[in-house]
Each structure stands twice: as structure tokens, then as C-alpha cells.
Hints:
The chain is an all-alpha fold. The chain is built from 19 helices and no strands. It has helices at about 5-20, 25-35, 40-70, 70-90, 95-105, 110-120, 125-155, 160-180, 200-205, 210-240, 245-265, 265-270, 275-295, 300-305, 305-310, 315-325, 330-360, 365-375, 380-385. Helix 3 packs parallel to helix 5 (about 95-105), helix 4 (about 70-90) runs antiparallel to helix 6 (about 110-120) and helix 7 crosses helix 16 (about 315-325). The longest helix has 30 residues, at about 210-240. It is globular, with a radius of gyration of 20 Å.
Amino acid sequence: MNRPLIVIFAAIGLDAVGLGLIFPILPRLLEEVTHTGDIAVHIGIMTALYAVMQFVFAPVLGALSDNLGRRPVLLISLAGAAINYVVMAFAPRLWMLLVGRAIAGLTSANISVASAYITDITPEHRRARRFGLFNAMFGAGFIIGPVLGGLLGDYWLRLPFIAAAVLNGCNLLLAFFILPESRTPARQKIDLAALNPLRPLRWVFSMKGLMPIVLVYFILSAAGDAYGTCWALWGFDSFQWNGLWIGLSLGAFGVCQALVQAFLPGPATRLFGERWAVVVGIGCGCMALVFMAFANQGWIVFAIMPIFALSGIGTPAFQAFATRQVDEARQGQLQGVLASAVSLASIVAPLAFSTFYFVVQKQWPGAIWLSVVVVNALAIPLVFLSTRTVRALRPASA
Length: 398
């Protein structure tokens, strides 16, 4: 593995650790600053605010990375994450937490720019495996992050945010001193009209067959947002888990996910093909969610983690498929549009899932996972539609 890949994977791993640190203790932090126990909707609002800012700026930063280079945009993103955690570490009021999340969302180009970076330096036939390793590193971060966050949070509620700020600062220094630029920037005069955050979305309609791909990303991302919004609340309401046990459950999922995405995407794609790898992954995830919905003891959640983690076998194959649909000059634009779809899902989904959880919280907390099954199922016909052909997409007028 070459040096740039090692650096980008390490950066993503550290980023995931920083994110995972706060998940086990965010509900308790919101209870502290809002002085109320009904914080499900507040979590949804915080997550949605982050996503709104990401939706507005991620496509723009993706396009800028094509023009100015991946490295400077990634550095800005990492700096924004560090500032966010510093604000959250010392914020005494809810509005300050919201400001911190807005800053983080504004500069949250990590994933889309890192994906474009990997595309730049990876031959087409190796992309599925490297995207699998990419996702595995992110999963590995969740092995360490949530467990560490639960431990630190039980000691002092604000300590995980300080740790996350330090980790993101180290991440920034690593990228600044070691990570080279992956492509020759265009260095053209920036068209201010191109910075319109809604303009990249028009591209979706001009490329025949691109819409189903974007919709699959939207739906799967919407379903995935349920975990970050409701997992800690559900763990406490269903099993009375403290921060450590919430962290351990997320860490167990991280272990299983890292193993699956490091070793199985390539074999799964060869065995099933791209479309069926995605469908099988969705099916495994839905099966695990049904078990979680009816679980009445915490050990059941840990027992089904391997099945749950298999939901990720098709994602790298679908990512590789998506990159083949546009030419090399537009990879940053593609990743920006996909990030925009993810962000749009993250605006709607946390508000919807947190509201639904608030309704079922006292009667049946596990019902939230059945709603996620329904959302996941919507993606299956679109997977078949988007993978009917594998030729490069061209503008609809062509």
C-alpha cells in the first residue's frame, strides 16, 4: 500500500474515532444543557442542522476540490471538525452546541473528498477493494471511539469532546505534513455561479441513469441515520445501558463491520455480482433489525452483530460502480453530488426518526428498527434499476 493511501486511511480512522467518541454521551449532554429528559427531538434537530450545512456546502467543496485540489479542501474540513469539538466541549447552552454542529457541517467534506482522492490514485479494477478498506478503517474507528467515549463520559461528560478535538487536531497535522495532492488542480478562475449549492444537483438530471444511483444513496443513508439518532436512547430505554455499554455495543458493531468490509466486499462481488451483493447486504441488515426490534435482553444485540455487519458487503461494490459512470475529470463533482444526497437524507431522516421514536419510546422503543426495515426495502428496486447497464453515463442530450 502506498504512502498516500496509508495517510488517507489513517485520517479517516481518526475521524471516525472522533465521531464515535460522542455518540454514547450526547443524550446526557443534551439533558444537561436543556434540563429535560425528552431529548429525542433535540438529537434529531442537532443531526439535521449538521446535515443542512453539509447539504449546502459539501457539493460546493467537492467541485472546488476538482478545481483547487483535494488537499486544501480536506485540510479545511479537518480544521472545522476540530473547532466543532472544542465548542461542544465547553458549551453551557443549547444554542452554542448548535453553533458548533453548524461549523462542523459547513466544513464536513471529509468523506466525499477522501473518496475522490482514492479514485484519483486507484486503478479502476482495484477500487472496490480500496473502498472496502476505506469503509473498514471507518468501522475500525468505531471500535475505539464509542468504547473510549463511554469510558471517558462516565468519568466526566465533557471529556470525550476534548479527546475528539485533540484527535482531529492530530488528524489535521497528519494531513498537513504528510498527505500530498492527488491530482493537478485545474487552477482556473472560479465561476461564482458554479458555487450555487443547488447547481450540482442539476447535473443529476442531465446524466441519463444517474438518478437511481443517487436515490439509492439517499435511501440507504436515510436508514443509516436512524442508528446515530436513536441507538443510545434505545439502548438506555430497552436495556438500561450506561455510556460504557452503549460504547461497547457500538464498538462490537465496529469490529464486525471492519472485518466484513476488509475481507468480504471483493469475494461478495465476485460471487453475487454488484447488484446482488447490494441486495444481499440490505437483506442481512433487515434481518438483524427485526431481531433488534423484538430483543428483550442486551446480549441478543451482541449476538446478531455479525449478521448486522453483513449489511455493508454491497456498499463498496456500489461505490465502485458509481465511479465508473463518469469520467475522471468529474469524480469530485460526482462525490459531491452523492455527499449532497447523503446530507439531504440526513436532514429529513433524523427529524423523522427522532419524532417517531418519541411517539413509540414508552410503549415499544424497538419499533424504531421496523421503520428502518421499511426504508431499506425501498432501495431494492432502485438497485436493480441503476445496475441494469454498466456503461459510462452520458448527458441525456447525447
